[in-house]
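#struct-queue
[09:14] JT: dropping the first one here, sequence first, then the structure tokens:
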Amino acid sequence: MSGFFDISLYFGAALTIFMFLVAVFINRRWSWALTTPLFLATIFVVAVLVGLDIPYDTYNKSAGYLTYFLVPVTVCFAVPMYRQMPLLKKHAAAILTAMAVGVVSSVMAVCLVCIFFGLGDVVARSLAAISVTTAIAIGITESLGGVVALTVSSVIVTGILGASVSDIVCRRMGLRSPIARGLAIGNASHAAGTTKAIQMGPVEGAMSSLAIVISGLMTAVVAPMIVHMFFGV
């Protein structure tokens, strides 16, 4: 059976799609933070790979092709943002201020946690862009001298976690404004969280899409300065 998986051109992609559809079905029957499709599908795929002792490289031979869809999917986020353009212009100052506070808080929190737990500057440099979409986060980590593998895995976990609990956190924090909810989700959990924001409403989706872009640009500028402030060159 292991040989079949090694030569299969569709195993990884088919497994991923199938498990995601199963997760969607479960989420529709029992809607809860831990049944978020992205989170649940990830758990299912990992369970199958571990249970059948299938190497990740074997799985990724075909599953890796799904990453080609990340670019067009990300571009699609511009559609709800364009539809809410008058709203974006009306609240431009508040949006930029909120995003700046969110970005600075995120990077500083990473640095302080690393100092408090003695994790060292390498971990801090790797996690400074934890709330930024993967493509931008990799570039930031490389410029800071961090470990890209740690950055990518952390960004994925952050996105899945944000998509899973964002709705609950917004309710508990009393965030009723769709603008605030969307900005918070996009700033904290990038593209994965934006998929959840789009489900919450058109304004939330537009604001979350905008937050991905702004937080990425701001983090690229702010992260090196904050990391240097805490850890030096």
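[09:21] JT: and here's the second one, same format:
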Amino acid sequence: MLRKWDALPAFMKCDEVREYYQMLEKKKLSLALKRAFDVAAAALLLFLLAVPMAVIAVMIKLDSPGPVFYRQKRVTAYGRKFKIHKFRTMAAHADKAGTAVTLAKDSRITKAGARLRNKRLDEIPQLFDVLKGDMSFVGTRPEVPEYVKKYTKEMRATLLLPAGITSEASIRYKDEAGLLGEAEEADRIYVEKVLPGKMRYNLESIRKFSLLEEAATILRTMLAVAGKKEEENR
């Protein structure tokens, strides 16, 4: 639920954020229904996907040493930190051996990981984060704290809502690793060029927020993933 303005953390209390807050304040019923959908859908999907998740877990363990899940500190609503759940797609401790973003032809990605990433199956465990309330099905993708510190005042408005599994920005930047290429200064390029572009879509999504628009985003995500799979099979 949307907090009262006075209850927001100090770093979010600025005119740039207030503009978006006032838009969302008029849509409290939709926000409540959004949370109800998240809980119901996440619980149902975790039940239906229990067996496929077990198969993926075995595949990961057989492919490379290390844990099944990858847990990394991310930022969600109101700047709160949490540890995201993802199936591990890189070698163990890969985050300590390179940039925080994934590059094209990243050598840290495992064989099983590459297959999971192509179909976005690595993100299935985020259903646990949705059920817990750390995430939503649709919302700004959760960034690491180091990148959140680089947010402009307007970008902080994206923290009015929980982070999401997918978003319009995720669809538009589905080939983000390709955009970064093999740049030696990937972190700088991400913060200066990629992040601002993604944030324009994220902020626009807040302006247009509605349950119908969120349903459309979920549908576009499924079509985008299916389209990418079709291109790979050609």
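[09:30] RK: nice, looked through the second one.
[09:31] RK: The chain is about 50% helix and 10% strand.
[09:31] JT: good to know. The two ends are 45 Å apart (CA to CA).
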